[in-house]
Amino acid sequence: MYQAIAQAIIKSIMADEYPTKLPTEKVLMAQYHASRNTIRKAIDVVFRHGLLRRVQGSGNFIIKQPQDTKKVLNLSIGFDQSAMVDGGPLVSKVMTFDKVTADDQLAQQGNIAVGDEVYRVVRLRYLKDVLYDLEESYFPRAVVPFLSSDSVQHSIFAFLREAYDITGSTTENYVHQVRVNAEQAALLDCPDGDKTLCLEAINYLANGTVFNFSRTFFVYPDLELYYHTENIDLQN
């Protein structure tokens, strides 16, 4: 329940419903009909996703993004970027939806075994009719036995939560520049070998099992990156 509340709070923040700070825990408890412990767990999720600054004795303040936040990609948001992009949600156009067997390259990319069967979903995603990214996602069928055609048109992660109670525990992200191949270039309508920003991600369950891995090629104009970290004092 706290994850659904966290997602609702994040959407409210990105819709500028809380321009300065979050309401008090008491107000949020009444709004979401939840216990104080549930609200605190939800706020912790929002904080870890880089949207809050905690000030002891004063509350949870909204971290202000640059003026044009549609050009800022928050890498700290891990459970469903399609719902969390400012000005969104992103609209998906599914180019490929099928099942494939992992070869050496896919196995290495997704930290799975060669021969594992996976769902493959290739989508172009748009923000207000402007191409935002090309996403190549894979879901091992040993963990995700079924994906519907409807689910891949919308939020796959929301479908996984509702259908299988699957929620990610940790994510490994790797951001780098790559040259797109001919197939990717054709989808993105750019020259073969063109450079673009790529986010490779592997999503794990709490037991360490991979339930999703992906490569996302961002082409939205003048995109910027934001990441939230918690400082650790290595002296203690």
From TrEMBL:
Keywords: DNA-binding, Transcription, Transcription regulation. One of its GO terms (biological process) is negative regulation of DNA-templated transcription. GO terms for molecular function: DNA binding; DNA-binding transcription factor activity. Pfam families: GntR (PF00392), UTRA (PF07702). InterPro entries: Bact_HTH_transcr_reg, Chorismate_lyase_/UTRA_dom_sf, Tscrpt_reg_HTH_GntR, UTRA, WH-like_DNA-bd_sf, WH_DNA-bd_sf. SMART domains: HTH_GNTR, UTRA. Residues 1-65 form the HTH gntR-type domain. It comes from the Bacteria. PANTHER family: HTH GNTR-TYPE DOMAIN-CONTAINING PROTEIN, MANNOSYL-D-GLYCERATE TRANSPORT/METABOLISM SYSTEM REPRESSOR MNGR-RELATED. This is GntR family transcriptional regulator. It comes from Lactiplantibacillus pentosus (Lactobacillus pentosus).
